[in-house]
């Protein structure tokens, strides 16, 4: 369905539309909620979209919360001294403060991604949700689901061994070094990715191969003794990269930022536009405005858009004369 670059894997993790609270915690909150000052707000998993809110039942509902936020009863009504963390009962739970708050707030504002696939969205059991054509075994991260209230929900990873299997299935050369990382945001999912290497300098992080250390796809920093991938830093770096691997029109390659992560990846410069229809490929068998030929015009550049629902996917599959076109669904992740 997509190229799983180690840097981009975390983008699939998601973040609750009401991330961990930004105000110092003053109360104890029950499980399934997070603390925001003197109130407890519910966590939904999977996280809610930007046009939804998380209800007290921990299920996403369309539209904004009736009163701006859905507040859950404070556990035992116990207040906590903001200075000492102590009160007339147990101290505030340590997981009520999220160290990734800035990242999660940013991710919460990003639109969800979606794609059309011949894959179930309704289920009776988890195995009903697996994509039969995937190289990833059913029940392994990347092709692993739960069946919740008759709907397929992607699941996170549970072990290093599972992530090694996943990395081998998607043919990662360093598969043995992959592990299961915890979700960075409340309500998110754990994810598979390469384990962070220990380092003293950035050079300790570089991998052997044709790409020089410090150049794009092999550009790292040593942050707190752990390797952190940097991605690209400039358009000229991307031109050099495109030339080195023999891509057509290397001069058109630019460094595109990855939202919320402070890094980037090399890709062709977006086609300029004044409106979405300027982006369509009019020689395509897929009509303009249908999935795979529908775009957003953002900052004067074309951005490929995802699917909007089953009917959109039916139109797409029918236009391409794909077999069993009516079995294609819009998969949101």
Structure description:
The structure is a single chain. With 333 residues, the protein is α+β, with helices and mostly antiparallel strands. Among the domains are: 198-269, no CATH class; 271-333, no CATH class. The protein is 11% helix and 20% strand. It has four helices and 16 strands. A two-stranded antiparallel sheet has the order 1-2. A two-stranded antiparallel ribbon has the order 3-4. Strands 5-16 form a two-stranded antiparallel ribbon. A hairpin with a 2-residue loop joins strand 1 (33-36) and strand 2. The radius of gyration is 22 Å and the shape is globular.
Structure, briefly:
With 333 residues, this protein is an alpha+beta fold. It contains 4 helices and 16 strands. Among the domains are: 72 residues, no CATH class; 63 residues, no CATH class.
Number of strands: 16
Stretches where pLDDT is under 50 for at least 5 consecutive residues are 1-20, 77-96
Q: Which quaternary structure do these chains form?
A: single chain
* Tertiary shape: globular
Record the strand order, biggest sheet: 1-2
Structural class: alpha+beta
Radius of gyration: 22 Å
H/E element sequence? EEEEHEEEHEEEEHEEEEHE
For the report, how would you describe the main beta sheet? 2 strands, antiparallel
Strand content: 15-25%
Mean pLDDT: 81
- Cα distance spanning the termini: 12 Å
Number of helices: 4
Helical percent range? Answer: 10-25%
Helices and strands, with pairings:
Layout: E1 33-36, E2 39-42, E3 52-54, E4 60-62, H1 101-108, E5 114-117, E6 145-148, E7 151-154, H2 160-169, E8 178-181, E9 191-194, E10 220-223, E11 226-229, H3 235-244, E12 253-258, E13 263-268, E14 295-298, E15 301-304, H4 310-319, E16 329-332
Antiparallel strand pairs: 1-2, 3-4, 5-16, 6-7, 8-9, 10-11, 12-13, 14-15
